[in-house]
Amino acid sequence: MQHWQEDFMFGYQFLNGCNPVMIHKCTKLPDKFPVTTEMVDCSLERNLTLEEEIKEGNVYIADYSLLDGVSANSTDPCTIQYLAAPICLLYKNLQNKVLPIAIQLAQTPGENNPIYLPSDEKYDWLLAKIWVRSSDFHIHQTVTHLLRTHLISEVFGIAMYRQLPAVHPLFKLILPHVKFTIAINTKAREQLICECGLFDKANATGGGGHVQLVQRSMKQLTFSSLCFPEEIQMRGVDSKEELPYYFYRDDGNMVWEATKSFVSDVVNIYYDSDETVKTDVELQAFVKDVYVFGLNGNEDLGFPKTIMTRDKLIEYLTVIIFVASSQHAAVNFGQFDWCSWIPNSPPTMRRPPPTEKGVVTINYIIESLPDRGRSCWHLGAVWALSQFQENELFLGMYTDEHFIEKPVKNAMQQFRKKLDDICSIIKERNKNKKLPYYYFSPDRIPNSVAV
Fold first, then answer.
1. Dist CA 316 CA 318 (whole Å)
2. Close Cβ partners of 404 (under 8 Å, ≥ 6 residues apart)
3. Residue 163 has what pLDDT?
4. Which residues lie across from 436 on neighbouring strands?
5. For residue 369, what is the DSSP state?
6. What per-residue confidence (pLDDT) applies to 1?
7. pTM beyond cutoff 0.85
8. Which of 75, 94, 167, 377 is the right S-S partner for 202, CB 3.0 to 4.6 Å?
9. 31 Cβ partners below 8 Å, 6+ apart?
10. Concatenated DSSP letters for 213-237?
C-alpha cells in the first residue's frame, strides 16, 4: 500500500476495493453538501462548471449517512472512540480515473463542518480521506459483508431446511450454497458480534453500534438490491463507457449471467410450466418462510410472498446462489489486501473529526488512528477472514452427488464451462496490471458463506 495516500488509490477503491458498492452517480448535489464550482475548480479538467460536469455524468458521490447518530464504542473507559458520517464527492477525470474532489465529515453543513478539498493543507486532506476510509470499513463489515451476505444467506438456509424435503430438486440445488453458513454465523455470534467479542474489542461500532447499523440498513435490504444487475443500475454505474475500469461490475455481471443460465437450465428440467411452479406447495412454503420469518413480513423490502412463474423462480434462486457464493467472495476475500494497512481502513478513531481547517498535523493523525492493541485485533481478523478453507469447493464444483439425473449433470457441466471461460477472460485482462482484480474470478469463489 505504498500508494495509499494518493487520490487515485483512494478513488480506485470505490470501484474495485473491498466495498465497491458505495459509489453512486451524482445527478444533483444534495442540499446538505454545498460544494461549489469555486471550491473544486482546480480539480475539474473539462473547463466546465461543477453543475455542467454533473449533467455530463462525470461526478459521483458516496454518502455514509447510515452512520449518522450511531453510538460509538464506549466499552473501554480508557479509550474514547469516534464515528463519523461523511459525504465524499468523486470526479471522473480525462483519463477515466475516479478521484475525490470534496469531503464533508458530517451530514449537517455549517461552520464547524468544513468541506475538505485536495487544495487544502496536506494533512487536512489526508485525515479527511482517512475518516472516509474508516466509515467505509464500518459499512463494509456490518452492512455489505455481515448483513447482505452472511445473515441473508442464513435466512435462505434455515427456510430451506425447514420447508424443503431433501428429495426436492430445489433443496439439492440450494444445499451446496448454504453449507456451513449457519455454523459460521453461530461462531460469529459467539466470538465477533457478541458482548466482549471482536467488535467490542477493536471496532468503533462495537458496544451496540453495529446492531444499530444492521437495524438501520435492514430498510435498504430490498430484493431488487440483491439482484446484481439491478443494484448496479440503481446506483447509476452500469455504463461501461462512463466507468470503463469498474471491474467489480463487469466481472459480477458475467458471473451473474452464468449463474442465472445454470439455474434456468435446472428449473426448466423440473418445472415444465408456470402452473407447475404455482402448485409446488413446498416451494411456496419455502418462499413464505423467507418472507414471514426471515424478513418479518416487511412488504417494503419487495421480497416475494409467493412465486408464480418460472422466470421469477429463476431470478429468486439466482439471488440465493449468487449472494452466498459470488457476492460474498467479492466483498470478503479482499479484506487483507485492502484493510491490513491500518491507515487505509481504521477500525476505530481515537480523536473526533476536526471542526476547522489548518489544525491537523502528522501527530494529530497518529493520535487519531487505532492503538497497537486494536490494530492487532483488526489485523488478525482481516487475515483470518481472507483465507480459503482446506479442500475448498469453488463455484460450479458439486462433489456430493445430490442430483443423479443426466440433464442436470449436463447443466452442471455447461455451468463449469462458462465459469472456466470467465476465469480466462479475467486472467487475460489482469495480465501486466499493477492492480489486478480477481475477487469475482470463479476459481476464487467458494460455493457458500463459510468464513
1. 5
2. none
3. 98
4. none
5. S
6. 64
7. yes
8. 377
9. none
10. HHHHHGGG--HHHHSHHHHHHHTT-
